[in-house]
Amino acid sequence: MMKPLQLRVLLILLFSFLGFETLHAQEYKNQFSIETDNDQYINPNHDRYYTDGTILTFTHAMHHADTGNLVKKIMEYQLGQQLYNPSTAHIYQPSLFDRPFTGYLFGSVAFNWLYKDESAFKFTAQLGTIGPNSLGEPIQTWFHKFFKLYPVGPWYKYGIQKSELGLNLNLDYKKLLYRNDGGWFDVSMDPDAQLGNTFTYVDAGMQLRLGNLGKFFESEITNSRVSSIDKGPQKHEFYLFTEPQFSYVAYNATIEGGLFTHETGPTFGIYHIVYIQQIGLEYASARWSAGYVAFIKTREVKSTALGDQWAAINLAYRFGKI
After folding, report:
1. Residues 242 and 269: beta-carbon distance below 8 Å
2. What is the tens place of the pLDDT at every residue in 34-78?
3. In CA terms, which of 1, 116, 182, 254 is 20 to 30 Å from 133?
4. Residue pLDDT, tens place only, 126-147
């Protein structure tokens, strides 16, 4: 696994390389991005709870009439897998078991509407599965064998045993609340809600950004660097951000098992009130974007499990000149 010092050096080199791109590059209407999540990106001694994720996203700026307050309509297609462990990926004594093994394999489509007043509304429909059909066990087993890490499991004893297909609908709203006269600091609200038989929750968060900031309809904050209309070069972004967020969680199938199945494996109850703190660094030029975001979450499992920490590294490439 990548050590923290190696990660910092990689990010510095990446941002330095991307910084050579000209400020006057043309705009693009498509974007492909990859995000990799891992708890060891924030702490190399951790291999627990939300332990790994890979998410691929294709983003396309849709054509629309350039009238009224609407600036952009964007469509996103996503495919991903997330893996969850107990306190370690290898249970050699029962006291280490504090959360079920499971995976979540999913695909989604999202529509994003962005407005001149720097508000954004996003609707996502996601179809996925937990349990054996998520392919969590073979993927994690292969990964540990390939990198000669310790053996994983036993999933058959401590994992979600029954697969369940899940449909989850998400509504997300972002709105700029304040930006200073110099344009290098702003505050926005970021509520969202999800209803489904895999995850059901309501979030309320506030995001603070500091640095070289783009407007919400052409920014990494809303994944809106693509465009269907050439309105001239977009501003490069390079900023730090933090987002405190409170979440009310009604259901989490990765902990409780499927909502409509009689789970035969061991499961746990959940804490309904969870606090999540995000701290990150984002960069975007005309063609490239990159970022690192750390997540710190309070306890969510009613067991001996502690709070969770992980980080996400993302890289995006835009193409298809307007």
Report:
1. no
2. 999 999 999 988 899 999 999 999 999 999 876 689 999 999 999
3. 1
4. 999 999 999 999 999 999 999 8
CB 206 within 8 A of CB 191: no
At 218-239, the pLDDT tens digits run 999 999 999 998 877 788 999 9
Reading the block at residue 170, the tokens are 């998400």
Contacts of 106 (CB under 8 A, 6+ apart): 78, 79, 80, 81, 82, 126, 127, 128, 129, 166
Question: Which DSSP letter does residue 90 get?
Answer: B
Q: Which residues of 163-189 are buried (b: 16+ CB within 10 A; e: fewer)?
A: bbebebebebebebeebeeeeeebebe
Report pTM: 0.91
Alpha carbon distance 128, 142 (integer Å): 22
How far apart are the C-alpha atoms of 253 and 51, rounded to whole Å? Answer: 16
For the chain, list the domains and their CATH numbers.
Answer: 4-22+30-317 (2.40.128.140)
d(CA 236, CA 212): 7
Main-chain dihedrals φ then ψ at residue 233, nearest 5 degrees: -65, 140
Above 70 in pLDDT, residue 17? no
* Letter string b/e over residues 209-238, b meaning 16 or more CB atoms within 10 A of that residue's CB: beeebbbbbbbbbbbbbbbbeeeeebebbb
Q: In whole angstroms, what is the distance from residue 238 CA to residue 175 CA?
A: 20
Average pLDDT, the chain: 92
| Closest-CA residue to 159 (of 143, 137, 142) | 137
CA distances for 70 relative to 48, 64, 65, 109, 217, angstroms: 43, 9, 9, 20, 9
State how far the Cα of 155 lies from the Cα of 100, in Å rounded to an integer.
8
